[in-house]
Amino acid sequence: MATPQQPAGIDARLVGHAIAVLVGVLAIVAGITAMVKGLPGAMSITLIAIGGLLLAMTPYSLRGSRPAWSLLVSILAVFATVTLFGAPTIRKQLGIGLGIALIIPLVQVVAVVALAMIHERYRDD
Questions:
Q1: Which residues constitute the domain of residue 58?
Q2: What is the pLDDT of residue 4?
Q3: CA quadruple 18, 23, 28, 33: dihedral sign
Q4: Between 20 and 30 A from 65 (CA), which of 5, 13, 58, 124?
Q5: Number of folded domains in the chain?
Q6: What is the SS3 assignment for the chain?
């Protein structure tokens, strides 16, 4: 079966997994920061757990594990949805513009799309 053409120089596999690692690291940092600043414990633990899962599943997904890949896609899609609707609160808490706050879910959506583009690599045979 032929695979769709992609623009030269863009490797969806690397882009999707690199963003997953970046989001994982930033989620852990945000969780620790939230804990230190006394924000709700559920938020801190959730961010740390999500970050840890993203970091733990990325190497398995890169090696071709379909469950790890699907977990990455699912976590990033849900996280993008939550941060999209939470952008006004994020804007207020961080003291930034709404446009800047909307970059967070946009980057996560890019990762979801990049990972979805390589779905053929994870087919059950």
A1: 12-118
A2: 57
A3: positive
A4: 5
A5: 1
A6: CCCCCCCCCCCHHHHHHHHHHHHHHHHHHHHHHHHHCCCCHHHHHHHHHHHHHHHHHHHHHHCCCHHHHHHHHHHHHHHHHHHHHCHHHHHHHHCCCHHHHCHHHHHHHHHHHHHHHCHHHHCCC
Exposure string for 63-81, b = 16+ CB within 10 A, e = fewer: eeeeebbebbbebbbebbe
Q: How far is CA 3 from CA 37, 41, 52, 75, 87, in A?
A: 48, 45, 32, 26, 36
Task: With respect to residue 125, please indicate whether it lies within any of the assigned structural domains.
Answer: no
Q: Given pLDDT bands bounded at 50, 70 and 90, which one contains residue 7?
A: low
Mean residue pLDDT across the chain: 89
Answer yes or no: is pLDDT of 117 > 50: yes
Residues 6+ apart with CB under 8 A from 35: 41, 44, 48
Q: For residue range 35-67, what is the model confidence (pLDDT) as tens digits?
A: 998 888 898 999 999 999 999 999 999 998 999
34 domain residue, yes or no: yes
